[in-house]
Amino acid sequence: MTTEAPTVDVHAHVLLPQVDELVTGLPGHARARELDARRNGPDALAVSGAMIRDRITALTDPAVRLARMDAQGVDVQLVSPSPSHYHYWTDAPMAEKVWRLANEATADHCTQAPGRLRGLGLVPLQHPEQAVEALDHALGQGLAGVEISSHAPGRELSDPAYEPLWARAAETGAIVFLHPFGCTLDERLDRWYLSNTVGQPTENAVALSHLIFSGVLDRHPGLKIVAAHGGGYLPTHIGRSDHAWRARPDASAGCAEPPSSYLRRLYFDSLVHDPHVLRALVETAGADRVLLGSDFPFDMGSDDPVGALHAAGLPAGDIAAIRSHNAADLLHLTSA
């Protein structure tokens, strides 16, 4: 790090070919790819394939990553596995192989530049009984926490089976990065890349609502959950949730306070692609709860996350908090 206040990007990905090699050829892998194809549609798959091929070195080569970071003015990245590595379709033995390999490979990638790269591992949401072990393994590799999707097949994040995971994450101070992969609206979003542009923020909003309304954040106030994509639609539409909480006993049965109050217990990245929405997110959640995020190096990310932050016209103190201080505190960074 070259500045007293390092610029920290908390939303950046690494592609792990060894994880793909591990699952390729398994019957469940073929079914998962078929589901992904149905959800995205042929046009999106064709564009995404070319995009990944064009950016493969940035996703896998630490030297290329560091050069791109320098060009962006980013000092530190929090690197998480590509969400395509979740593989929540795997059985228990294969799931353990996936998260162990993903954790170790991500840690190895980050050790190539220990002052500039921090990492996140994976936990198998489809096998909650393994989740605490997987989190501990990630932390044991020197990773800062884990990345999870918005749900697993047949389980929402409000499922009681995840209580040990939330408790352990709160106890250890681990970061839990909430990044959806795939939207259950399926073929309704299979054109014009709606699977991502509409699907991702929808999944973010649903997942966060499960955490809020079920009381997970009441029971585990120390949880450090970082929501990708600015938390999706929820922060800018939280008034409807508050109204339901006040108007309906079924909506207020699980959480102790109005839903909007919990936004100040969560963290959000800044990747909302609109300065007006970023200002609204800061107003709703607080500048101390927003972190710089780029979705490096994917095409739905920002090639200039610092510039996008400045475009929102926020006060200088808020910009400094979002660009640096909030993430530095979460990651326990020290200046060089």
TrEMBL record:
It comes from the Bacteria. Residues 8-333 form the Amidohydrolase-related domain. It comes from Streptomyces polyasparticus. Coiled coil: none annotated. Transmembrane segments: none annotated. It holds the Pfam family Amidohydro_2. Signal peptide: none annotated. Keywords: Lyase. SUPFAM superfamilies: Metallo-dependent hydrolases. This is Amidohydrolase.
